[in-house]
Structures are given as C-alpha cells and as structure tokens.
Amino acid sequence: MIRPFTAPLARIVAALCALTILAACGAAPMEPGVSRELRDMYPTMEDNGWTIPAVPAQYLNDDVKRQIVTYRNDRTPGTIIVDPYSRHLFYIIDGTTAKRYTVGVGKAGRGFAGRGIINHQKDWPSWTPTQRMLKTDPELYGPVAGGMEGGLDNPLGARALYLYRNGRDTLYRIHGTPYPWTVGGMDSAGCIRLFQQDIIDLAKITDNGTQVIVLSEAQSAEDQINRGPLGDGV
Description:
Elements lengths: L6 H11 L18 H6 L3 E3 L2 E3 L14 E5 L8 E4 L4 E5 L4 E6 L1 E2 L8 E10 L7 H6 L1 H4 L17 E7 L2 E10 L14 E4 H10 L5 E4 L2 H7 L3 E7 L1
Parallel strand pairs: 4-12, 10-11
Antiparallel strand pairs: 1-2, 3-6, 3-13, 4-5, 5-6, 7-11, 8-9, 8-12, 9-10
C-alpha cells in the first residue's frame, strides 16, 4: 500500500530532488509532437502490484530515450559502463554497439570511479538514509532513520542494482526514480538514477556478477571518441 507523505517525508523528497516539484508523478497527457514510439516506450505500467505512471511528455525526446548506439570497445558483452559526466549508462552488446540509457547523477554518483560488480538486485527496494545524512540533517532524515519501505514514493524506485568491489558494498547504486525530471541532470543526492521503465528494462538483461565500470571525468572525455551516431530506440 502507498503510505501518504508525512511532512518530514515531503521535505526529504524535496531535498533529494533539489528541485521544486512542479509536476506530479501521475500519468500526464502526452503533449503534441511526442512520437508514438516514445509513448509506447515510457507508458503507464503494472509491476509487482504497483502502477508506475507514464513518463510525462515534457521529459521525453529522442535524445533521452533508451536506444542502440555505436560504441567501439573491447569489453565483454553484458558489461555496464557508467559515464556520470555525459549522464549516460551503456550496456555493451558487442564490440561496436551498446544499449544507451540516460541517467541522472547525484553527488554520490560522481564520488566513485573504477570497477565493481553487481552483487545483487532488488525489486522495489527499501531505502535508508546514510549516517552522513543523519548527522548532517537529523531533523530532516531522523524520522526515516530506520528505513523507508519500497513503493512509488521511494527514492530508489522500482529496481536497484547494488555495486560491490572486493566483496564489499561500495554504497553505489544504479536505480530507478519516481522523479523523472531529475533524469539527465545532476543533483545533490543519490547515485545513478534512471526512468522507472528504463531501470526495469536494464534489470531484465543484467545478471548478478555483471562487471560495471564507472568512468572518471578524464576517462569520460577520452571515451567520447568511441561513441558514434545514435541508433534506434528499443
């Protein structure tokens, strides 16, 4: 069941987004000019008893949609490349192509670089503020110090992929978001967030043990030469 926002929770949502909430996460009418492909790619959908709203039209265009792109690489198929600086995630298909997702990036998403593996995944995960959050703003995060159950309002969204390195949790997450206006941007909180429809798509094709490479800013700039023209949405 969806729990109503309490006053502290409403403040947490505002803090996590670092934006004024101008649009609800409900199914908004699609605007003229949005293609049928985009409407079909990001629709209202049922998942594990939850109704995920369609992504509102104002946050959709042919650049942000998930799509096949040219990506020259020598990685093992199935590897995930996260580029926090271009705000993209690439799922390697073969030596010349990848499936590209647009991501939103929080401060934590820019604080880690290097290799890890997906240790496990969770559907509709719970979320608990970090000790740093609790110490920095106990009034804001204290009411949910014990954790927040999964659901439509949870900051981790419909899926979370948990990145480990050397057997230890890096606290780095690739996850969904109920805040579609944050996808494609950089905010103050969180790691790597995707549209709900995109994180469900990514989770379906990602196995535990998948290799993840998170690029540094310098690596991002160097890696740009490997990326070619946009391909087809999928």
